[in-house]
Design brief:
Chain lengths: 193, 258
């Protein structure tokens, strides 16, 4: 693997398993920005987002075998790790205090305009179009859960909707997104269920 | 949520599960189901792919953070291709019986001999390994062996090993119990010609120690390793196996935490 820039993500992870630090650096170059953006979006705290990113990449370095290339992309794996750790931190008391202190000093950005926030966060025009075409109730449920870090019960309270309805909207919205994104040429190789 | 959920109930929660949006009380129950349900696992992976596409991909990672990450990697061992290869020795042989090695090889050799001495029922000569495994795989012991391997796989204290090839296309799975007993499980390694064999190696520090000759087909096979083994590898060797190897592994994988 002389030129890591041409290596597949799966090959990079195998190289990480062989203690190739340059392979980890290449993974960081490819996906570190997205992981950081997600953590910062959730935590609204640059310092905590950096801590999460460091933890996620150290975890990949120490246990690369946890990534299964047959289960999905490395990007999705790293973002799921980032999201899970960020949500854990977000829901912890320490984080809550820090966040409340920060929000007391600054105007909160999330929640002012959820649709604008999501449009800002989407990757491409195609993704924007697909997200925008999603039924509003499904889109709101996904946004609040994924980018807000809320549980579906919290989302139900926020949207004044039954819990069962919200969990159904999250799943149906994700399934609809998958189908629409595949039709738009994104993620077309995913296995059909 | 103390009770188990039905498959249908779990399926209804998979979207929220994939987005980390379950209540803590539900998380454990759903997680337990998902980890043993192939269909649910696949759906969760798809939801996470979708969620990943919603996150901006153009952002630059923060400057200076990589340096901090890289600085924390210092404890990693040196690359494997610098590792000396340790010969496999008969179990009954004592360290004092061995020819003297260079100082650099001495400690590693003692580790190797100690590890080999643990092999016990497998026998330790390469030929014995192969004969024993062939007998187990080809005879009436197969069912018992498979049951033992399955039981080990289901043991929550067992450590799993996913061995993969450089290109990611070949893989094999193994499991190691706390007492060092291990089992090669499934693999998609192609059958070799009769004059070739797969050979299993334990990686101890930077040393490679043979723990079994698997034959031309990598079937279910038992093995034994010491506590300090951190990875397993399989090489393609001449029939009968070799005492040392400098070949690149066909597949390689770290032993995961239980």
């Amino acid at each position: 693997m002389d030129d890591l820039r041409d290596a597949s993500d799966a090959a990079l992870v195998v190289a990480i398993g062989r203690w190739r630090e340059d392979a980890l650096a290449e993974v960081y170059r490819r996906h570190g920005g997205a992981a950081f953006a997600l953590a910062r979006r959730l935590l609204n705290d640059r310092e905590m987002a950096e801590e999460i990113l460091q933890e996620v990449f150290l975890r990949l370095w120490n246990t690369p075998e946890r990534f299964d290339s047959e289960r999905g992309s490395l990007r999705a794996y790293l973002l799921a790790q980032t999201h899970g750790r960020s949500v854990d931190l977000l829901r912890s008391e320490t984080s809550r205090r820090r966040r409340e202190e920060r929000e007391a000093r600054e105007s909160p950005s999330f929640g002012d305009d959820i649709e604008r926030e999501v449009i800002d966060l989407t990757v491409s025009e195609k993704v924007k179009e697909v997200v925008a075409a999603l039924p509003t109730d499904e889109r709101q449920a996904i946004e609040l859960a994924y980018f807000g870090g809320h549980t579906y019960r919290q989302v139900a309270v926020m949207l004044e909707a039954p819990e069962g309805t919200v969990k159904s909207r999250i799943r149906s919205g994700l399934r609809r997104l998958r189908k629409d994104l595949a039709e738009a040429g994104l993620g077309a190789t995913w296995a059909e269920t | 949520m103390g009770r188990d959920l039905s498959h249908e109930e779990v399926v209804g929660l998979l979207g929220a599960y994939a987005l980390d949006a379950l209540e803590p009380a539900e998380l454990q129950t759903v997680d337990r189901h998902v980890q043993r349900c192939e269909a649910c696992l696949a759906e969760v992976a798809q939801h996470r792919e979708v969620a990943g596409l919603l996150t901006p991909g153009w952002a630059k990672p923060p400057a200076g953070l990589w340096d901090r990450i890289a600085a924390s990697l210092e404890e990693a061992p040196p690359p494997l291709d610098l590792a000396p290869v340790i010969a496999m020795k008969p179990a009954r042989a004592r360290v004092a019986d061995k020819p003297r090695r260079s100082i650099g090889m001495g400690v590693a050799a003692m580790v190797a001999v100690a590890a080999v001495a643990m092999i016990g029922f497998l026998g330790v000569r390469v030929a014995d390994d192969r004969r024993r495994i062939d007998q187990l795989a080809g005879g009436a012991h197969v069912d018992e062996l498979q049951r033992s391997a399955n039981a080990a796989l289901a043991d929550p204290s067992a450590r799993k090993v996913d061995l993969v090839s450089t290109d990611g296309y070949r893989n094999a799975q193994a499991v190691v119990l706390p007492d060092g007993t291990g089992y090669m499980m499934s693999s998609n390694l192609p059958a070799l010609a009769a004059e070739r064999t797969y050979q299993l190696w334990a990686l101890v520090g930077t040393s490679r120690i043979s723990v079994g000759v698997l034959g031309p087909e990598a079937k279910v096979a038992p093995f034994k390793v010491g506590r300090d083994v951190w990875a397993l590898a399989i090489t393609d060797e001449s029939a009968g196996g070799v005492e040392t190897t400098k070949k690149d592994p066909v597949v390689l994988g770290r032993i995961q935490d239980a």
